């Protein structure tokens, strides 16, 4: 009877899983849209324009 060595395939699967999970958990930076909005509002305010901003996040 021939024994199969499962250590190598399992090791490859485990390493592959760690790599996939680590890249999947990277989130998009949320500050970029806020920074852009802030810049637009500051520019409008400096040029004496009226600025209307509404918040639709649903937070209290």
Written overview of the protein:
The chain has helices spanning 7-24, 31-46. With 60 residues, it is an all-alpha fold. It has a domain at 32-60. The mean pLDDT is 77.
Give the tags.
single chain, about 60 residues, mainly alpha, 2 helices, rod-shaped
- Work out the number of β strands: 0
Ranges where pLDDT stays below 50 over 5 or more residues in a row are: none
Task: Report the C-alpha radius of gyration, rounded.
Answer: 25 Å
Determine the structural class based on helices, strands and strand pairing. mainly alpha
What helical percentage do the residues reach? 55-70%
Largest sheet entry? none
Mean pLDDT: 77
Shape designation: rod-shaped
Determine the number of helices (DSSP H or I, runs of at least 4 residues).
Answer: 2
| N/C terminus separation | 68 Å
Order of helices and strands: HH
Strand content: under 5%
Summarize the helices and strands and which ones pair or pack.
Blueprint (H helix, E strand, L loop, with lengths): L6 H18 L6 H16 L14
Task: Give a short synopsis of this structure.
The chain has 60 residues and is mainly alpha-helical. Helices cover 57% and strands 0% of the residues.
């Amino acid at each position: 009877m021939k024994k199969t060595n499962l250590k190598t395939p399992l090791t490859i699967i485990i390493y592959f899983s760690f790599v996939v999970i680590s890249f999947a958990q990277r989130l998009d930076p949320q500050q970029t849209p806020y920074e852009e909005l802030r810049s637009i509002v500051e520019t409008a305010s400096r040029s004496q324009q009226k600025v209307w901003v509404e918040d639709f996040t649903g937070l209290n």
